[in-house]
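new request in #modeling-help
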Amino acid sequence: MARIIVVTSGKGGVGKTTTSAAIAMGLAKRGHKTAVIDFDVGLRNLDLIMGCERRVVYDFVNVINGEASLNQALIRDKNCNQLYILPASQTRDKDALTLEGVGRVLEELSRDFQYIVCDSPAGIEKGAYLALYYADDAFVVTNPEVSSVRDSDRMLGILASKSRRAEQNEDPVKEYLLLTRYDPSRVKSGEMLGLDDVQDILSLQLLGIIPESKSVLSASNAGIPVILDEKSEAGQAYEDVVARYLGEDRPLRFIDDKRGFFRKLFGGRS
Amino acid sequence: MSLLDYFRKSKPKSAAIAKERLQILVAHERTIRNRRPSYLPQLQKELLDVIRKYVNVDQDAISVNFEQDENQETLELNIVLPDYQQENKSVNM
């Protein structure tokens, strides 16, 4: 049986797709057969971040409608043969996904894969609901910023009431916090919410903090999940996230202000 | 904090303001979300008693669900009746 992970946030632009790509690659690199699914029907982007946009033939909606088999639609990642991508449809609207259809595809994937990562669209509408409905674990991606924290809290409410586990009175979806676009120097100077501030409100199990990093944009420019950029802080932080999710104990990194003496003195931005 | 900041540090830090606003807002939104009528368990029990007068159902054969949206409240009642045919069979035998 596969473990189903939803990467969710409510708010858009906080790093859901970047995170989905990174953790799916991280799990696969460790030898776990992993599938990552784009639930953002109409606005697919995961294929671009994963660098497989030119290899998309069939998509998630084709599989649900029986127009293609799962094997025809799944794209094997070029960097890791344990990782497969199921792209979203570019042309249909969000009603093309159905609860029953998504359930069927996830069940078929579960026979063959160890982890299924569901990349949720922004918002709290149908696509986001379907992405989280069957989840076992939820990675709540949050920026240290008021609207993102509020939306994350809203998503926690939905996970606790609308998910399959909630409906069927099973153990609740396991919720984890992933704090992204974190800028330690701004936290230190009191102009950005810090980890403790966010945790005072959300109080979730922390999977990791991803520092604001130029390498995230470079990685998406190139279509290579940032976790493969092992020299970058963001890449290493995602590596820690995967390790912690799998039960390893890793100390937090990249949360201290690392600006040099002169920059601190004169308040220059890095 | 930079050297320049020492000369203009009277105003409160914006992160502290953000946190305070969030705490108030989130607490408020959570109470709205969790507001369930307190009569639900009692309602469920009494409904079960009434139904049992006529049909022999299990304790968990009835579920009462309360949902609240922005502008409407829904009370959903679900009763699973025992399999009628099987009961007939057992009576016939």
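bot summary: The CA atoms of residues 61 and 80 of chain B lie 5 Å apart.
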